[in-house]
Amino acid sequence: MTYLVKPKLHHPNLPKNRLGFTRRDYEGPVSTLCAGCGHDSISAAIVQACFELDLPPHKVAKMSGIGCSSKTPTYFLGQSHGFNSVHGRMPSVATGASLANRDLIYLGVSGDGDSASIGLGQFAHCLRRGVKMVYIVENNGVYGLTKGQFSATADAGSTSKRGVGNKDQPIDLVSMALLLGATFVARGFSGDKKQLVPLIKAAISHRGVAFIDCISPCVAFNNHAGSTKSFDYVREHNDAVNAIDWIEGRDEIVTDYEPGSVEDVTQHDGTVLKLRKIEADYDPTDRLAAMSYIQTHQARGEVVTGLLYIDDAPGDLNDRMNTVDTPLNRLGEEDLCPGPNALAAINASLR
Ligand SMILES: Cc1ncc(C[n+]2csc(CCOP(=O)(O)OP(=O)(O)O)c2C)c(N)n1
Ligand code: SF4
Ligand SMILES: [Mg+2]
Questions:
Q1: Neighbour count for residue 287 (Cβ, 10 Å)
Q2: How far is the CA of 213 from the centre of ligand 1 (A)?
Q3: CA–CA gap between residue 145 and residue 33 (Å, rounded)
């Protein structure tokens, strides 16, 4: 993978977080994506979120598939673990890693081609099983890396850069995620960092599978009139239902909102998401209502963004499979291979 190393020098007065790291410590090498690519803004939002959450970089594992989007983990969290898998196969690698070591924070970054086309089956099973991870799709409606073919999320009727119309129906990943039982579902826009950073922070603090569909315009192949994934289109049709302003826990809470316009969602780990309601009637804890709202607004050509659904007491795959707390690589031979008598007992119990 190509990359340019960033100079290590930085201003001595850069703010530090509780671990003593600056924002620069969460960056990676210089991105080689096209200037203006939405994916780079998402990387910047991930850097900001991890810095603000005081995450120890060695506690994060970045997982991805293949595509411009899947290249981006190279450009953030340069001191974290990473695995760049095969096209569309990130979820199965993340599933295995998360079962083997529940101590790490898994940050999966994928593309709409990677997750809605070749990797649709993997995407579906990862969400349905509740793999404890943050799953971000950087959604530009095209296969950017292979020069702009329509992906499965391209809207019917939208046109390619050369003016060809897409006749196929789109796959809406947030609707699918809701249907599949994901316990945290959000949609962001790479052009709205103010909304995206808190969404990523909330997703990282979620105890189950957290999915973010992030519209991320491809400036090289899908940012023209006729595209529904362009900067202009999303800005003009963005229907934000709420905004997370911060996650309580240690920060001083300062609010100037009208009483009633802020809703608290307390997560399993005690963090509280402060949701500022933009759509008064939108309830992010009602899965069915969220599905109906998203579909209704989508039919009008609107792009619904914000925290769309959250289950504040989610389960995850590790809980259901009762996996050990200790990462497998820290267990001794005795635990990993308890011998023929233990195997015989297990076999006998299954007869
Ligand atoms: C098995 C396999 N099939 C096809 C390809 C070719 N290929 C590479 S990236 C890509 C699509 C990437 O699109 P997306 O996931 O949307 O990422 P983007 O580049 O748009 O960010 C394809 C088809 C491949 N690398 N491997
Ligand atoms: S081709 Fe598109 S998706 Fe890929 S780096 Fe360029 S702008 Fe981004
Ligand atoms: Mg794409």
A1: 19
A2: 17
A3: 10
State the ligand closest to the CA atom of 40: 2
Tokens encoding 128: 């349905």
Domain ranges in the chain are 23-321
Greater confidence, 247 or 187? 187
Please name the residue whose Cα sits nearest to atom 5 of ligand 2: 33
Give pLDDT tens digits for 84-137. Answer: 999 999 999 999 999 999 999 999 999 999 999 999 999 999 999 999 999 999
138 lines ligand 1 (CB under 6 A): yes
User: Which whole-number Å values give the CA distances from 138 to 29, 218, 267, in the listed order?
Assistant: 19, 10, 25
CA 35 to ligand 2 centroid distance, Å = 8
β-pairing verdict for 60-64 and 81-84: parallel
Please tell me if the CB atom of residue 140 comes closer than 6 angstroms to any atom of ligand 2.
yes
According to the model, what pLDDT value does residue 10 have? 80
Nearest to 109, CA basis, from 163, 3, 166, 190: 190
Say how many Å lie between the first and final Cα of the chain, rounded.
Answer: 50
Task: Specify the ligand 1 atom closest to the Cα of 87.
Answer: 26
**For residue 150, how far is its CA from the centre of ligand 2 (angstroms)?**
13
Tell whether pTM > 0.90. yes
Give the ligand whose atoms come closest to the C-alpha of residue 118.
1
Tell me, using a 6 A CB cutoff, whether residue 68 lines ligand 1.
Answer: yes
144 lines ligand 1 (CB under 6 A): yes
Q: Which ligand places an atom closest to the C-alpha of 161? A: 2
- Can you spell out the DSSP letters for 263-310? EEEE-TTS-EEEEEESSTT--TT-HHHHHHHHHHHHHTT-EEEEEEEE
Tell me which H or E stretch contains 213: strand 209-215
| 294-331: b (≥16 Cβ within 10 Å) or e | beebbeeeebbbbbbbbbbebebbbeeeebeeeeeeee
CB 133 within 8 A of CB 101: no
Name the β-bridge partners of 306.
187
Q: What's domain 23-321's architecture?
A: 3-Layer(aba) Sandwich (3.40)
